[in-house]
Give the backbone structure.
Amino acid sequence: MQSIRILAQIDLPSGTLRWWDGSGGPFVDGDGNIYRACVLTEDALPQIEAAINGEAATLSLVVSGIDSRTSDNVWEDYQNGNVVGSRFRVMLQKLDQYEQPVGTPKIKFTGKIANLTFVDQTDAIGIRSTIQIDISNRFTLLSVTSGAVLSDVDQRARARVINPSAPDDRFCERIPTLKDKTVRWPNW
């Protein structure tokens, strides 16, 4: 019976961090890359699914169970101001009946880190580090920092910069006209 494994990869200036969702030892993919075990929160899977399906422009994940060396490296990059803008990818890896990778991982979501928050908790066992990673993808550019949607003028200006050879963007102009339309489906 085949199964899949959720892989996450962050490309930081100090190096690439690779995690897989689960507990246990390291996971080695077909190319020899080593992924360390981590624990995603229970609401992470629906968030990842929404991001993969293009239903979410941002993805917020909380990763815990990170070893201290990795946490220290991420903290150092964070202190140097090198984390924001780093590439983040979510991949799915098929496994065979022996839990060995089959083929290469399929990239399902790519974004850039917008923010990183560290939370350290102490208990009887020791210090547990969790990192909240806020990732944005290309659809986040459709909103401004205040959270408002771009105006018609802003959308046209943005479209001219991104794709100067395209005709004038009339998207914001056409949307209000759709409120009076009736969608009939299926059209037999």
User: Anything to note?
Assistant: The mean pLDDT is 79. The longest strand covers residues 101-122. DSSP finds four helices and eight strands in the chain.
